[in-house]
Request: fold
Amino acid sequence: MRRSLVAGNWKMHGRLDANRSLIDALVAAPRPACEVAVCVPFPYLAQAQALLAGSAIALGAQDCSVHEQGAYTGEVAAGMLREFGCSHVIVGHSERRALHGETDATVAAKAERALASGLTPIVCVGETLEQREQGQTEAVIGMQLDAVLHLLGAQRSSRIVLAYEPVWAIGTGRSASAEQAQQVHAFLRARVRHHGADADALPMLYGGSVKPDNARELFAQPDIDGGLIGGASLKAADFLAIASAVPSP
Ligand code: 13P
Reply:
């Protein structure tokens, strides 16, 4: 049985008072059947760690450095995230690939660094609309995934979480259909299996305009094990409704 996970990616949103209300509401709610995590901006890690203490909700960050430590101004090391109670870190989000020039090799190195520091990397892959329309979806995400699988090897690859986030569905209100998402997830799982990693145990999340009204259908797909949620993770009621849309094991 695979673990399922619903993770909130707050992106660059939040304020101390708003974070407190949001996390308090999440902690007070009945525990969903799946694992739940919130990935908050770096400055709020300490606040979130304190507010989540004693709860079942995991803490994550949205990026980490490829380096262990050193003269890398502005970077944050995976080991630092660990010190603030993080168990997860997103790597290779399309916004970082597009806006910060992160290559497949960089993303793979970040995943490796995260694992070495005791964190679970949530590795994001996804195609642009143009790539999808040109029939390149599998070629693009296959290459993004291969970089990670090759660097990590089969054993360490079995310890990651994968997130399929079509770029055209992120923040657009236009989610992939359940069929489209399932098709890509099945492709990704086959690719992971081909590399010798434990594909059946590897959680694969869908991300891109997941809302309370489409979550259930997406999460009902056989290869979709939860979601990586952007905008809707900022509203406690929506995020909780999405988490409770994960089928019980
Ligand atoms: P939205 O849910 O806002 O579309 O964002 C998805 C995302 O990028 C999560 O990482």
Observations:
- The mean pLDDT is 97.
